[in-house]
Amino acid sequence: MGISFLKRNLKVFISYGLFIIALIGVCIFVEGFGKFDHLLYILMIAAFLGIVSAGQTMVIMIGAIDLSVGSVITLSGVLMTQSISKWSFSLPIAILLVLVTGIAIGMFNGFGVSILKIPPLVMTLASTGIVQGLSLIATNGTPGAINIEYFTNWATQPVILGLNGIILTWIVVTVIISFILMKTSFGRSVYCTGLGEKAAILAGFKTRQVTSIVYIISGITSGITGVLLVGFTGQSYLTMGNQYQLLSIAAVVVGGASILGGSGSYFGTVAGVLVLTLITSVLTLFRIPAGGQMAIQGAIILLMVILNSIERIKDNRG
Amino acid sequence: MKVNNAFRRIVDLPPIFIPLIIFFVLNVILNNSILSVNGINNFFVQITPTIFAVMAQTVVLLVREIDMSVGSVISLSTVVMATTMGQFGYLSILIVLGMAVVIGLINGFIVSYFKAPGIVVTLASSMIFAGVALVILPNPGGEIYTSFNRLLMKNYLVLPNSMIFIFITLFVWKYIKKSRAGQALYATGANYYSAYATGIQVKKTKMLAFVGSAVLSSFAAFMLCAKTMTGDALIGNSYTLTSISGAVLGGISFFGGVGSMTGAVAGGVVVVMLVNILFFLNVSSFFQYIVQGVILILAVLFSIIKSNLRMEQK
Lengths: 318, 314
Hints:
A: mainly alpha; two-stranded antiparallel sheet; 78% helix; B: globular
């Protein structure tokens, strides 16, 4: 069991190994990198990507894709600040509003993909446009800021064991998603749907339901990320979610999941999230401009996709 | 017999021409200055970039792939054009075209020879192109000749030059479509394995489709450069979504091998005209994002229903 487990998750372990080697390398060569506070800070930045990628992982596992995560994060952030500062909601109700919106968008995506049979890419691209429009309407073009001290403190200051609210939320999300994927029958049906929808239907899985639920989970995780980003910065802006649209897909692919579905694990995605966050923070440290960072991230995804494809071609021949 | 043939041809026109005519009439009613010589010129200047973007997407959709890098190739092309024109003059057109061919070859090579899904490959490569464009020109700028602006924006022969540019491209496409390569394009998209079995070089065909897409995207960039007189690393962003909705509205099937270029062009025009109409009706520009999303969903739904009907007929 031990060896087969190792073999099956070889790529994931390689990702973690690379992360640790890179981290040690950076800590040695870059001054100030690697102090405990700084590591916690990187972990917090990674948490945002980690939580969105949890939903994206499940979507990619069923062989679909969710391009709307970035716009949902923006809308969530916008709804948080608008509902508290303009519509004078209380904090819990604002968070509830955000989560309900995330669920609604997830249901919309899931409905389009599973019932109307619209290709996932197109469906979520279209809902990206719609959600962007909603953000603009909700803010009238100028998003606001909120100033709730206890919320910001909870998010960014140590709460328990020196960890802040953002990292704690990521830990909770990790536990829940891993439990769902590994220990529940729903988790099994996610893998099976991704391996082959027709076979899964014949085996008695309700694949339409699985698809819808997976998109709803993705909507919720995006919503949570939006809430946490507002807790982190105290404000919302209309491009706050943009980078997560592609980075979340990158994290899943770097984590060893096949973009065609049926493989991967959240454990692997977390490795992808850590590697990507480390690379981004090193690039920022070397003052590489945003464009250069984007190009390098794109190159990493491309490389991973090519490696995965070569492996698949080899598997088919063997 | 002849009348019958003519009738056939009208019936065979893609259904997109009905909304095209309706929208055009609506457009004229809301803004009748469109019917003047200048009005038509302005109208064509406005729609040409979208039309080329739609054409670019169409070539790839025909082989049953999708190109998510249309927008960023447009951005990168405007940036390269604006930064090289000062030094190399009109040679920069060739530089941009050469770059587009290389981009298409890279995308196409990875998709067809590594059998990687086109969606992710082009998403990743679009990040690279957009990133490089931002590195070259963080803010809009560069230099475009006034003569280049006149060449594409004016109307030397009553008809707008931009319209002639489109018609030449469509004319060339007509011959490409009839050629071996064009037939291979449709065959590969309709059924990859049958095409392979009949001896068509499917991988090469797919690669050529991506090259065609990148080159047509750079045509859109020429129009944008001439229009704005600058290079802008963000100008292409919205064109990826528009190119897909336009092509699908125009009857290009998502499942490859079905649809005509003229239909796709008409689809692109409809998308732009819809935005125009919303503008004249004083609808807030915020709603335009929503409308574009809804159009895309409806267009795809329509095409799915149509292909289901076709399957049943068989």
